[in-house]
Amino acid sequence: MMGHSECLPNWLEKRSELSPERIALEFKDQRYSFLDMHNHARNWASAFYSEGIRRGDTVGLLAASHADTVFILHALFYLGVKVVLLNSRLTQNELRFQLDDSEASFLISEQIYKDQVNFLSNHGITAFIKEDFLDKNCGEAPILHEFVLEETATIMYTSGTTGKPKGVLQTFGNHWWSAVGSVLNLGLHEKDTWLCTVPVFHISGLSILMRSVIYGIRVILHDSFNEKLVNDDIRNKGVTIISVVTAMLNRMISNLGDQKYPRTFRCMLLGGGPAPRSLLEDCKLKHIPVFQTYGMTETSSQIVTLSPEYSMEKLGSAGKPLLPSELYIELDGKKAPAYQAGEIVVKGPNVTKGYFNRAEETHKALRDGWFYTGDIGYLDDEGFLFVMDRRSDLIISGGENIYPAEIEGVLSRHPHVFEAGAAGFSDSKWGQVPYAFVVLTQENAVSEEELKEFCKQYLASYKTPKRIIFVKELPRNGSNKLLRRELHTLLEEEQ
Amino acid sequence: MMGHSECLPNWLEKRSELSPERIALEFKDQRYSFLDMHNHARNWASAFYSEGIRRGDTVGLLAASHADTVFILHALFYLGVKVVLLNSRLTQNELRFQLDDSEASFLISEQIYKDQVNFLSNHGITAFIKEDFLDKNCGEAPILHEFVLEETATIMYTSGTTGKPKGVLQTFGNHWWSAVGSVLNLGLHEKDTWLCTVPVFHISGLSILMRSVIYGIRVILHDSFNEKLVNDDIRNKGVTIISVVTAMLNRMISNLGDQKYPRTFRCMLLGGGPAPRSLLEDCKLKHIPVFQTYGMTETSSQIVTLSPEYSMEKLGSAGKPLLPSELYIELDGKKAPAYQAGEIVVKGPNVTKGYFNRAEETHKALRDGWFYTGDIGYLDDEGFLFVMDRRSDLIISGGENIYPAEIEGVLSRHPHVFEAGAAGFSDSKWGQVPYAFVVLTQENAVSEEELKEFCKQYLASYKTPKRIIFVKELPRNGSNKLLRRELHTLLEEEQ
Minimal Cα distance from A145: which residue of B? Predict the structure, then answer.
């Protein structure tokens, strides 16, 4: 039975049989049961099928966090389609790159992204607007009654340390095991409700949707993060779990003031980088059950989470690898002893099988079944992970990952830019924001404003450097590798 | 990552790292944390290793439900040994057959089974008595840090409908998926405690031990079933879940009298065959949360369980197949429509890969990934399974099918019937006719004729027992399952 190609019943379809009447999704006070969700997914699947979308195709999805988006996602799984989840804040050129690179045959989007859709249509992509399907009468599509765990379900792009973004392959098995690893740590209560205010095109949001159908629990979906609405829902709607990043938690705590969360609220799942101790201590005082966690697109969300009994004692740690996963710290090609920092290396059935069409990068990141995260951390003498730095140079701004190399790549294309370096700088609102340091081909050849405008053509606005500082040269090491962390020193000198 | 040979961290070792201080096991008021359990398992592994037991060996285990037995089981997994779980009620010749048939190289047992061990030693089996290892000083054995899901962990013998017992292969993956399927239905609370009073050499008991290390929950182990002690523990020790069969539940309810279980007791998992409606209705009145379930050695315990929200509405149903599993009813080589009885056919990653060294029987039972249970049942129009009978127990009388469970269900409704068993007996006219065996609540409370009249109110006359024989107790196996075929012996004794 095990072995060759292991499969499981189609999760949502099965869930709609097991608990048809349970609430699956709430969005803007509309409620959908698992049976409703299944029916919506079937209808969307039929619509897409009538347009020629078939099993094995790759389809881009550019959509906001709406109820329809959830149905459409499941519809695409029903059809056996690989879904490329597109960040809606990307520029038209970035979107085009990801669709081309993933060899997507179709794009599904919605009216609010009309401009992007037009641009992409003009560049040879067959694009659909969801609103155009309304009232269309389609035959019934054949849907998958089983998911093959080894097959790719989703593709998400990340930039990594260098060069162009890479498409991370996430299989049905990756998503399944991620959900299972999480439930064996966090438990599962009959009335669990997960509040999703993070984008569903990120693994943090998508993994909530996956858990919903695997666990049979309700998701309350917000189309964006608003701390007041979040606090209202936690206090009044029976929310038991929410996924947040530091910047969100900061704003929630500030908005909460002297009020409290109900005792049924059992998990504040805090990811997206190390959290400041002061914030964690604040939460401790307010009896907010914070579970720090560490994960990434390549691990299909959490891979390390702090167990309930240690949430206070090991403040600041991301915890231990979940039951199905393993971890060690590598330093100079060997396992590092306790308290020695090195590269975090992980393994588990939730870990990606690689990057689409990137044999070399895949080979570099995945060795003997171990995934080299590029992140820096150490284990204490009890095996608790402390993450020090994400991919050393990664900038995390309001929960979004920004890779300096991508900003540098764009700046370097400008005819007057000789070379560029980017780094994250502290920001009270976003945690970090990107700054860039530029060496020009000749002095005053271009202004800061002009360069920012240039960046905006290619980079989502959150990636566009908030400041561009002109310098004579960039700090480099002996092998001429850019030392991004020394850019901070440059700023001080410049001032 | 997925694919070739998927593996997971050694469960107990991993659990001892994740939650070392949590209580794993309580036995006769001794408590063992997960770290204690890991240390005990390591020590036993070292002892066995020093005696020459190696990865790949097959080892018989003949032991009662003691704490040591749990440690020894894990020790054998640590060594990568296949464990043959031996029923302690077997005769010496039956034990010898199972050890020979499974090609076991070693037997591990304890002092209380000295006679069996001597007999088996005299027949060429290398046997150890656990008490002989005390105070022995051994080096440290190399233990498995990962379990390969496809590898066989345990072998359990079942007789099936005909012929010699067959060794059911249960892989690490089977046990893992069984635990995962269960948790996605029953949920998982931080303080869950599973009371185990069923033998650990049966899948009902073994699966509790597996869940304990996979979920990180406490097991309270009893060496035998005693309704008073069980009720005491449920009422005083924070038990949240217990696995029972009908006969056990009957005795528990009778012993409970007017008292109640605490509200934290959340699951009475009732397996081992169809339960009489009267008992389920009794439980409903007492607010006891009964989850009927259906499973077998070949499915590594539960495969079908009634979801919480239907436990009352679908009284008498075993529920729907757990999330990772599938099921249909086959009749005359085709899928049967709703309400048509036929053979129950199942599929899922918890299903055995076959019988050891029995290519033909494996081939017959497993076709295209589907396992033919030999059991009879039907699905209602909402897909709920109603198990009617084990095929072997089917009574065929004048061409009509009679399911013993139906007769037993009717008899159990009578206020003076404590429990009942029915079976087919040869008849020159009809081929077979049904007889019933009844244990009364008190002697002479009701006559045979009165009971027959009672039955006729609910059963077609061909289903009404031709004889009703009053007995002191019904024949049951180690897990308290009614042995209908042994009812024939009762008749001979009675005469």
Answer: B326
Q: How many CA atoms lie within 13 A of A113 on its CB side?
A: 26
Write down the pLDDT at residue B278: 79
What is the rounded CA–CA span in Å between residue A425 and residue B442? 84
Query: What would be the CATH architecture of the domain defined by B173-341+357-390?
Result: 3-Layer(aba) Sandwich (3.40)
> How far is residue B258 from each of residues B240, B261, B282, B290, B418, measured CA to CA in Å?
20, 10, 12, 18, 18
Q: Scanning every residue of chain A, which has its alpha carbon at the shortest distance from the alpha carbon of B215? A: A184
Tell me the residues of chain A between 1 and 30 that have a Cβ less than 8 Å away from chain B: 1-3, 6, 8-9, 11, 14-15, 17-19, 21-22
Check if CATH label 3.40.50.2020 holds for domain B394-494: no
pLDDT in tens, B246-291: 878 989 999 999 999 999 999 999 986 667 777 888 888 899 999 9
pLDDT at B165 over 90: no
A238, A193 Cβ separation under 8 angstroms: yes
Contact B11 A323 (CB under 8 A): yes
Task: Over range B377-396, report the average pLDDT.
Answer: 84
Quick one: pLDDT at residue B181?
A: 97
Q: Do A21 and B309 touch (CB under 8 A)?
A: yes
What value of ipTM does the predicted structure carry? 0.84
SS3 A66: coil
> In the structure, what pLDDT confidence band is assigned to residue B139 with cuts at 50, 70 and 90?
confident
Q: With contacts defined as CB-CB under 8 Å, which chain B residues touch A380?
A: none
The CA-to-CA distance between both ends of chain A, in Å, stands at 67
Burial of B247 (0-12, 13-18, 19+ CB in 10 A): buried
Percent share of chain A, pLDDT over 70: 93
Write A158-161 long-range contacts (CB < 8 A, 24+).
Answer: A158/A296, A158/A297, A158/A298, A158/A401, A158/A403, A159/A401, A159/A403, A159/A405, A159/A406, A160/A361, A160/A374, A160/A391, A160/A403, A160/A405, A161/A374, A161/A391, A161/A392, A161/A393, A161/A403, A161/A405
Query: Taking a contact as any Cβ pair under 8 Å apart, which residues of chain A between 138 and 177 contact chain B?
Result: 149-150, 171, 173-174
Beta bridge partners of residue A168, listed in sequence order = A156, A355
Name the CATH topology of A7-379. Answer: Rossmann fold (3.40.50)
Quick one: fold of A395-494?
A: GMP Synthetase; Chain A, domain 3 (3.30.300)
- CB A314, CB A384: distance < 8 Å: yes
- A383: region left, alpha or beta (phi > 0 left; psi from -120 to 50 alpha): left
3-state secondary structure of A405: helix
Residues of chain A with pLDDT under 50: 1-4
In CATH terms, are B7-18+31-148 and B173-341+357-390 the same topology? yes
Point out the residue among B183, B307, B371 whose CB comes nearest to the CB of A18.
B307
pLDDT of residue B1: 35
- The answer to whether B1 contacts A308, with C-beta atoms less than 8 Å apart, is no
Burial bucket for residue B30 (CB in 10 Å: 0-12, 13-18, 19+): exposed
In the stretch 206-225 of chain B, residues with CB closer than 8 A to chain A read 214-216
| CA proximity to B376, closest of B347, B405, B351 | B405
